Amino acid sequence: MITQTKLAVFGDPIHQSLSPRIHIEFARQFALDIDYQKVLTPAGTLAEALSIFSSAGGMGANITAPLKQEAFALIPQLSPCARTAGTLNTLKWDPSTQQWFGENTDGQGFLQYLQKYTSIDIAPARVLLLGAGGAARALIDVLEKNVSQPLTVVNRDLEKAQDLKKYPRLELLSYVALNQQIHQTRFDIIINATSSSLHQQLPPLDNAWLKNSIVIDLAYAHGLSTPFMEWALSHHAKSVDDGLGMLVEQAALSFALWFDRMPDSKPVYQQLRSRE
Ligand code: ATR
Fold first, then answer.
1. Residues 86 and 22 reside in one and the same domain
2. pTM of the model
3. Is 68 among the residues known to form the active site?
4. First vs last Cα of the chain: how many Å apart?
5. 31 Cα: distance to centroid of ligand 1 (angstroms)
6. 135 within ligand 1 shell (Cβ under 6 A)
7. Which residue, 125, 158, 209, 225, shows the most beta carbons closer than 10 Å to its own?
8. Where does NADP(+) bind (predicted)?
9. Can you tell me the distance from the alpha carbon of 161 to that of 211, in angstroms, rounded to the nearest whole number?
10. Ligand 1 pocket check: which of 194, 196, 198 to mutate, most ligand atoms within 8 Å of Cβ?
């Protein structure tokens, strides 16, 4: 008997999510039958949504903005990677304990994106990371391990980021404090890990930072540039890219956790790019 595996992505907004398309392509590579739904889940309602999903036979899930840290707080069984990052993006149902197991594939997905689709060498780079939410935290951990220079993180609400002081080398700043340093330093790479592009907004970053920097917006705008990418280009960024590569790579790692098989991600990435 062929069984269908029930999967879903939870977030708000969720209509824009490419995860169902990506996972259906991965499943096709192994002739697996999956049902992958998008579940609109406002902040504060994830516990209820997950309980409904597991009761209906849900076996795996992706968690996206703004729920990554909410998910982390709900799930007791965590991988070491999710535990260190303090955030998660992937859940697998564990039938033996009847509980969800939480993993974070964002950080490794970001590294794989850099290796597979770019020539960027982050090891010696001076990196500025915008945001301190769920998406940013997975990156902070891999950047701390893979970049030799101290990482600078900027967030509007510094209260929410106080626990990042556990990273001794990390410099945590408000946008006002960062913008005051404009004549003293520059960044090779600027990563937008805020959800600003999802809301068609820009973070309050002085545009002079963008000149000659490699700019990566982790958001994806279905073939269009995100507002952040447009802004960076108009202020002479050296290059700009969106989050499609990381999205496909983190998805491949989630798929491998669910099915113990690593899909071939590059053709799926190329297919999505060519349909833009
Ligand atoms: P995600 O899972 O995408 O990280 P999140 O956990 O809700 O979503 O975090 C959203 C992040 O985007 C936060 O760092 C938030 O900054 P604050 O903590 O200061 O609110 C940031 N963010 C959202 N909109 C932003 C904007 N217009 N400008 C700057 N930062 C923004």
1. yes
2. 0.95
3. yes
4. 38
5. 38
6. yes
7. 209
8. 131-135, 218, 243
9. 27
10. 194
Q: How confident is the model at residue 224 (pLDDT cuts 50, 70, 90)?
A: confident
Domain that holds residue 17: 5-106+250-267
Query: Nearest residue CA, atom 25 of ligand 1?
Result: 196
Secondary structure class of 159 (helix, strand, coil): helix
What is 50-112 written as a DSSP string? Answer: HHHHHHTTEEEEEE-TT-HHHHHHH-SEE-HHHHHHT--SEEEEETTTTEEEEE--HHHHHHH
Cβ of residue 73 lying under 6 Å from some atom of ligand 1: no
Quote the ligand 1 centre to 175 CA distance (angstroms). Answer: 13
Number of structural domains in the chain: 2
Q: Check pocket membership of 196 for ligand 1, CB cut-off 6 A.
A: yes
pLDDT at residue 223 greater than cutoff 90? no
**Residue range 59-100, pLDDT digits in tens:** 999 999 999 999 999 999 999 999 999 999 999 999 999 999
pLDDT per position as a tens digit, 121-145:
999 999 999 999 999 999 999 999 9
Quick one: 160 and 196 in the same domain?
A: yes
